[in-house]
Amino acid sequence: MRLLKNIFVFSFILLLCGDLYAGTASSKLSALSESLIKGYEAKAGAAKATLAAFPFSCEGKLRKQRVGFGVSELMSHRFVASQDFTVVERGEIGKLLNEQKLQSSGVTDSDTAVRLGHMLGAGVLLLGNINKVDGVYQVNARLVNVESGEVLASGYTELPVDAFNDDAGVYLNLVPQEQTLGIYGVLNYRHNANNAPAFVDTVPNVQTTYQPRDFTSFMAGGGLLYRPHKNLQINAELTTTKVGEYEYMVKTSSAYWSGYGYTLENKLPLSLTAVSLSASYVRNITGKFSCLGGAGLQYMLGTVENAKNPPPLLFVKAGVEYKPQSRVGFGLNMKYDLKPIRFLFENGDNVLLKMNPLSFETVLAMYF
Predict the structure, then answer these.
(1) What is the pLDDT of residue 70?
(2) Residue 24, burial from CB neighbour count under 10 angstroms (0-12, 13-18, 19+)
(3) Treating both helix axes as pointing N-terminal to C-terminal, what angle do 67-81 and 24-44 enclose, rounded to 10 degrees?
């Protein structure tokens, strides 16, 4: 439980850091928004308006990376905080663009934007265009009156590409949504009650009673992931424990000792390695969060004295991922084995070691 508590505390800290951080590009776009608000106030006075912020126009490659969307989103934060505007929800704008089949091409002219603004019930539009010149994004922005088409305010700023990618990475498609490759590290935590019944092993003149004990396993490793489709992810993973020791209780007696026996705590050398292949359905929840659910096949190899390795077993898993930027993801997963992993005593069907079916994982991924 202490491990899970630490995981969630760390996740909360990451979330706070992501929300509190404001870089160079964010500051410049916030200042640009502020200048537009002041220009609006100079013309419209204290009149409050409903604002629709459309993705900014840009050339094909930048549009595919959603640079225009990222600029619009970062700028709209300042308008949300302003007392002069009620900002239309991003989801409503995206839904309308999909209905009008404009999601891929974007809003390329003011007449189309004004028409869509009427459909959204907006009084003012945030529009703009972006050019990339020598590692710098040149951003032109303007506020347009929906009824008259009048430009109420306009402004310009320049953003270093690297700084913008850092600040707006969560909104961008710097990593392709399909044909995505990634590598990741994983730590699997499992507390094993090991509640297998005691059993007796008899060899000539010696009788040994085995009583399994509970133990905790930490398996660390990594894997490769591939997304042939934005909603389908395939994982190939290898995890292992460093060599440790697993405790059990043994009671031994011998005919040579006239029935006398002794009881002791003993330890078996223990090393576990898991190889797994899984497929998962992945769905984006927000710009920073996604969830997944899937199933896979796992083969557990063990170096456990007097034990046979179990056959490959099926498991299911579910989890969430937080992406502070487009190429980095931090995940929490829950795995459940559909059949418990059991290491059988080599001389029969008795269970020497039994692992709990439920385990938890932390994952750190890099995407390409």
Answers:
(1) 92
(2) middle
(3) 60
Residue 142 pairs in a beta bridge with 127, 154
* H-helix segments, the chain: 2-20, 24-44, 60-64, 67-81, 90-99, 110-120, 161-168
**What is the rounded CA–CA span in Å between residue 168 and residue 244?**
45
Rounded Cα–Cα distance for residues 232 and 215 (Å)? 35
Q: Which of 246, 309, 302, 313 is nearest to 273 (CA)?
A: 302
**pLDDT tens-place string over residues 25-73:** 889 999 999 999 999 999 887 778 999 999 999 988 888 888 999 999 9
Question: Which residue, chain included where needed, has tokens 């989801």?
Answer: 91
Give a three-class secondary structure readout of 131-154. Answer: EEECCEEEEEEEEEECCCCCEEEE
The CATH number of the domain covering residues in 22-171: 3.40.50.10610
Q: What is the DSSP letter of 198?
A: P
State the pLDDT confidence band at 139, using cuts at 50, 70 and 90: very high
Q: Tell me, which fold does domain 180-367 have in CATH? A: Porin (2.40.160)
Per-residue pLDDT tens over the stretch 310-347: 999 999 999 999 988 778 999 999 999 999 899 888 87
